[in-house]
Amino acid sequence: MDSTARPSRFWIRWLTAVAGGVVAFGLTLVLAPALTRQGFSLLVYASPGRIDAFGLEAARYISLAHAVLGGVMVGWGVTLFYVTRTLLAEGMRLGWNLVALSVAAWFLPDTAYSLASGFWQNAVLNAVFLGLFGIPLWATRTTARQDR
Predict the structure, then answer these.
(1) CB neighbours of 54 closer than 8 A, spacing ≥ 6?
(2) How far apart are CA 132 and CA 24, in angstroms?
(3) pTM of the model
C-alpha cells in the first residue's frame, strides 16, 4: 500500500493516547468509587461531599452506576485503541468510520441528556473529550482510503 494513504503517526499516537485516557478514566470509575463520587460531586455541585450527603444507600448506588459506566468505558477505550492502531493506522476508511461513529454515538445522546436534565457541566466535559477525538479525526479524514 502507498504510505501517503496512511494517517500521520502523530494523529495515530494522539488518538491512541485519548483511547488510553478513556480506559484510564473508566478504570478510575471502577477502582476508586470515593474519588469518583467526589470528582463528579465537585463537577456538578461545586462541593466534593454533596453526593455522599445523599445518604449511604444512594451513594452506594451512584458508585455502582459509575462502576458500570466505567466498565463500559474500558471496553470502548480498548476497542478504540485497537481500531486506531490497526485499521486507522493503515489508512482504512473502516477504521476512521468506526472511531468517528462511536464517538458521535456516545457524544450526541450523552450531551443531549446532560443539557436536557440541567447538568451542563457534564456537557462541557463531553465537549473536551469531543475535541480530543475530533481534532485528529478531522486531520485524518482525507487520508483514510475507501476499503474494498
Answers:
(1) 62
(2) 15
(3) 0.90
- For the chain, the domains span 3-140
1 band by pLDDT with thresholds 50, 70 and 90:
very low
- Cell numbers found for residue 56: 449511604
User: What separation in angstroms does the CA of 15 have from each of 56, 102, 118?
Assistant: 38, 13, 30
Sign of CA dihedral 69, 71, 73, 79: negative
Q: How far is CA 96 from the centre of its chain?
A: 16
Angle between helices 120-140 and 93-116 (to 10 degrees): 160
Tens of pLDDT, residue by residue over 59-93, are: 999 999 999 999 999 999 999 999 999 999 999 99
50 alpha carbon, distance to own chain's centre: 25
Strand partners, 68: none
